[in-house]
């Protein structure tokens, strides 16, 4: 059986290796350049590959195509494959068929990386043999090729969920939903929301869906759709007989007559959004029968995620904070909301259809100066020019940080929280965050 992998990044190469291990005839095609480390991995496995092109006669005779989540359906080769009736799936779907233990899967517009890493940490500290994969770390397929019997904690994007057919997590989590990636969903918010809920489409009554009951879009979708999974809500404002809530500065997890209480002050991560992330992760740990004491200790020792409200350094009593992973308005809302002091805000990049008015109350209250870091900053300028006295444009991280240092006074914060994708000036949000940290350390 011939399998073609489109896209030779982490997920694509992992899929190719897994396919080779199961005796598929494998061909890998990437329209861009393939990184040398991935070329070496493919060569070691004797897997044929091509770069900077898609050769139709080598692709369109496939029985199955595994598509990278970054490739949209409107690409010519995908359209032609669909016309020929070739089955097209994601790495997640392909790897799942060879993974014997039902995974734990986490999605959401924001918070999914922190929740995934915290969930993995709680389960590992609790003594379970769990892997970490999906939108984070090493490829799910690549890990399944080595260890197919492990349970995996997966961070999943809507793009990865678009390519599933039979994928069924035992526990699914939806952290929240806010407008993101609408360019991939015909600019229809409802299409993006439906994509997120694909996480639960194959679940049965033996499985669980954990979700934010404060999220209007999640509640609306659940009110109008039937699902088979057992629903477990979490909330900062409501109480549940089964679910997670906050009472007297404690997170309470109520589950089948079992109750876990954790003081909010004992959670290492700060901010309301991280209370929610902790609720979701703790609910998973409770379902997986992790000891209460282990859960409490692990919540207080977890160190957080790089590029997500990461405290980089304090210089001249100014705190520099790296939130490069905030690539949409909702993520930046959480960041600004958690600022206790006056803030110099570094913002901008590739706009994904942002409505900057949503941040207006927080900008008025917390932001003393804005540094635009992007090729096209006119929307940011237009939104805040009458609200913030100082708005400066720049196209280099070093320059942005130097200007921020001049603007900031003792006791202030300098916050990189771009609300945009990074690809105009940087390779990725990680590259953007690392450049910020390097520039701060060189002040």
Architecture overview:
This protein has 443 residues and is α/β, with parallel strands linked by helices. The protein has three domains: 2-89, NAD(P)-binding Rossmann-like Domain (Rossmann fold, 3-Layer(aba) Sandwich); 96-301, UDP-N-acetylmuramoyl-L-alanine:D-glutamate ligase, CATH 3.40.1190; 310-441, Mur ligase, C-terminal domain (Protein-Tyrosine Phosphatase, Chain A, Alpha-Beta Complex), CATH 3.90.190.20. The protein is built from 17 helices and 20 strands. The strands form four sheets. Strands 7-8-6-9-10-11 form a six-stranded parallel β-sheet, covered by helices on one side. A six-stranded mixed β-sheet has the order 15-16-20-17-18-19, with helices on both faces. Strands 3-2-1-4-5 form a five-stranded parallel β-sheet, with helices on both faces. The protein is globular.
């Amino acid at each position: 059986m011939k399998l073609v992998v489109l896209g030779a990044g982490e997920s694509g190469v992992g899929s190719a290796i897994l396919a080779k291990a199961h005796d598929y005839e494998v061909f890998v095609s990437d329209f861009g350049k393939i990184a040398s480390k991935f070329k070496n991995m493919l060569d070691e496995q004797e897997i044929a590959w091509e770069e900077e092109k898609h050769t139709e006669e080598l692709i369109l005779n496939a029985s199955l195509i595994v598509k990278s989540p970054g490739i949209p359906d409107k690409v010519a080769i995908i359209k032609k494959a669909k016309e020929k009736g070739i089955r097209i799936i994601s790495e997640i779907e392909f790897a799942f068929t060879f993974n014997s233990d039902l995974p734990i899967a986490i999605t959401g517009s924001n918070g999914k990386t922190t929740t995934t890493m915290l969930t993995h940490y709680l389960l590992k500290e609790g003594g379970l043999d769990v892997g970490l994969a999906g939108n984070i770390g090493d490829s799910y397929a690549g890990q399944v090729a080595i260890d197919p019997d492990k349970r995996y904690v997966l961070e999943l994007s809507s793009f990865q969920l678009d390519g599933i057919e039979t994928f069924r997590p035992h526990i699914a989590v939806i952290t929240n939903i806010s407008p993101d990636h609408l360019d991939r969903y015909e600019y229809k918010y409802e299409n993006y929301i439906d994509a997120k809920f694909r996480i639960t489409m194959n679940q049965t009554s033996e499985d669980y869906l954990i979700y934010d009951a404060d999220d209007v879009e999640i509640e609306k979708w659940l009110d109008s759709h039937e699902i088979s999974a057992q629903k477990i809500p979490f909330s900062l404002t409501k109480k549940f007989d089964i679910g997670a809530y906050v009472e007297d500065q404690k997170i309470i997890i109520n589950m089948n007559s079992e109750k876990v209480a954790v003081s909010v002050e004992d959670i290492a991560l700060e901010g309301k959004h991280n209370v929610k992330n902790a609720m979701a992760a703790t609910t998973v740990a409770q379902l997986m029968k992790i000891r209460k004491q282990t859960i409490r200790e692990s919540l207080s020792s977890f160190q957080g995620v790089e590029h997500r409200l990461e405290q980089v350094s304090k210089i001249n009593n100014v705190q520099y904070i790296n939130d490069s992973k905030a690539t949409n308005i909702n993520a930046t809302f959480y960041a600004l909301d958690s600022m206790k002091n006056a803030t110099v805000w570094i913002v901008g990049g590739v706009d994904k259809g942002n409505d900057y008015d949503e941040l207006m109350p927080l900008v008025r209250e917390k932001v003393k100066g804005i540094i635009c870091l992007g090729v096209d900053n006119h929307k940011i300028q237009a939104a805040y020019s009458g609200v913030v006295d100082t708005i400066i444009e720049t196209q280099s991280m070093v320059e942005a940080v130097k200007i921020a240092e001049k603007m900031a006074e003792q006791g202030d914060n300098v916050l990189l929280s771009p609300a945009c994708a990074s690809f105009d000036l940087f390779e990725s949000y990680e590259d953007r965050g690392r450049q910020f940290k390097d520039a701060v350390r060189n002040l």
